[in-house]
TrEMBL record:
The lineage of its organism: Eukaryota, Metazoa, Chordata, Craniata, Vertebrata. It is found in: Cell junction, Tight junction; Cell membrane. Belongs to the claudin family. This is Claudin 34. It comes from the Eukaryota. InterPro entries: Claudin, PMP22/EMP/MP20/Claudin.
Amino acid sequence: LFLNMRCESGFVSLWLSAVGWALTAVTLGLIQWRVWQVADLTFITSGEAWVGLWRVCFYSHTLVTSGFRVMYCQSMALSDSFTPPEVATAQVLTLLGLVVGFCGNAAAVYALRSVYFGLEKQTPIRRAFAVAGTLCLLSAVCFLIPLLWNLNSVVTNQTIAFPSNFHMPPAPVTQKPGAGIGVGIIGSFMMIVSGVIFILYRFPVKMGPRVECS
């Protein structure tokens, strides 16, 4: 029973880490990080605009971006002078966090594989679990910093000085956090939980030449 619990905890933490990493990867592509409610419906006919990490989009009957039917989008790059610091930071840290999280999952797979096949040397395996946990925690931090920073900007109704070709108002009437922030926070906390489990993982008792997980 003890052996099975040890094996299961390792696989559960790997599942949490993999799903958490996938959610953080999804949040990079979501444009609904900050949802602006606007009063002027001249261009933003839906009254709602989405501010993401890489672009700004809204539904419009008068402006349409090539490739879209009823949506207008403009890109927002790190080098643009109007890009706010919380968005610029997110563009860098989220990509870094994605790479670090992938490495953490790879280290976890190696560690669990070594446990399952019963390698004799336990020290390298313990180190692999420690590395996996540390990388998962670091990945979560890389995501949480920009996520919470952008969430604070939403709560305090911070504006962005978009250029005229974006057709965005000087400030929103109100704004709310979008799915991108929510998904990212959930994924980050899953990475934190898995990271802690990996770091606290204890090597199971062996049964014969290899560890048997059932």
